[in-house]
Amino acid sequence: MLSTASSSFIDAAKGLAPQILASAAEIEQSRRLPPSLVEAMGEAGLFRLWIPRTLGGEEIDPMTFVRVLEEVSKADGAAGWCLAICGGNNVFAGYLPADAAREIYGSDPNVKTAGAFRPMGNATVVDGGYRVTGQWPLASGCQHSNWIVGGCRILDGDQPRLTPDGAPITRILFFPAAACEIIDTWDSIGLRGTGSHDFAVTNVFVPTSHSLSFREPPVETGPLFALPTIAMFSAGLAAVPLGIARHAIDILTALTRTKIASRSRQSIRDDAMLQANLGRAESLVRSGRAYVYEALGEAWDAVSAGRTLTLEQRSALWLAGTHAATAAKEAAELMFSAGGSASPYVSNGLERCVRDIHAAAQHIILTAANYQMVGQAFLGLDMRATPLLALDDRSGE
Description:
Blueprint: H1 4-15, H2 17-22, H3 24-30, H4 35-43, H5 62-75, H6 77-88, H7 98-105, E1 113-126, E2 129-139, E3 147-156, E4 159-160, E5 170-176, E6 181-183, E7 197-207, E8 211-212, H8 229-237, H9 239-255, H10 272-304, H11 311-338, H12 350-361, H13 369-378, H14 387-391
Parallel strand pairs: 1-3
Antiparallel strand pairs: 1-2, 2-7, 3-4, 3-5, 5-8, 6-7
Helix pairs in contact: 1-5, 5-6, 5-8, 5-9, 6-9, 8-11, 9-10, 9-11, 9-12, 10-11, 11-12, 11-13
């Protein structure tokens, strides 16, 4: 049973569909979301869903956020992806010291956070913080974000700071968007409207308080912040391909009302292969979606009861996200095939669904390589064999 707050945000996302659909061509051509659409999403409260309540956010459960992402992605994959990243990254507010969190997230209810986690920057320790230089790829939504985060190697002088076992210490640092140079690199096959360009900083000072590590306990104590962040993102990002696949099914279903098969001169609704493809696509999307909500629900129940997630529960979040993205991609391809000669036309929309869903499924936390990683975890192998799972491990295993 959805709460009133959950239902209101899902309804708000549904209500944005006409504006998002009307912006689809502009999103694709300009390779970014129109500022008016970003503003409308902010006014609907969609960017503050994972900001802590102590800072004026909603701190909503992950299942509701995934529902919202599905609705937005059903209208446009790039819009859903930008919300997933720029709204999802706002969960970082729960990891920052209170003053820094208030400065970054407490003053603007529509704050948006882009960035990249990979440690592509060098952060040299100085009095009060770090001096940072680096360049990062794939900063989705960077052109309309207030803050941009980048993973950095921590340096003492010119030497990397190391953990006791000799691994480089890394942290995620926050940069004001105005301090970042956006480098136009995102000329892509799909999700063109996400503006996932490179960004760079040169000798930028970042206070110590404006940094975090997923290996450190969160400052906020709510269950949302007790979930393993990267694993939760895996399940959350899967909402985007699920929404895109649902859009593809809707397009194909609408096409059957008008299209006549060239060979039989009968309605394509009567084609047995199309009917089978539609049935398979429905089963793929519904099963992938069900596993995402099952894994998130089990994890949410555990952390809400004060329990630490087991390795198997964290693995399930990765597995559910990966499976959902893989299933959604197959479903979209089935719909493209079923559409016949109509599918390649840009005006049809199916080719856009296929391109966008392939781009989404290439993200590292959704790729097929995760099946092996999760299999290793299920076999009880050393956590060093599953480094992504180990990244946000708080179990002490």
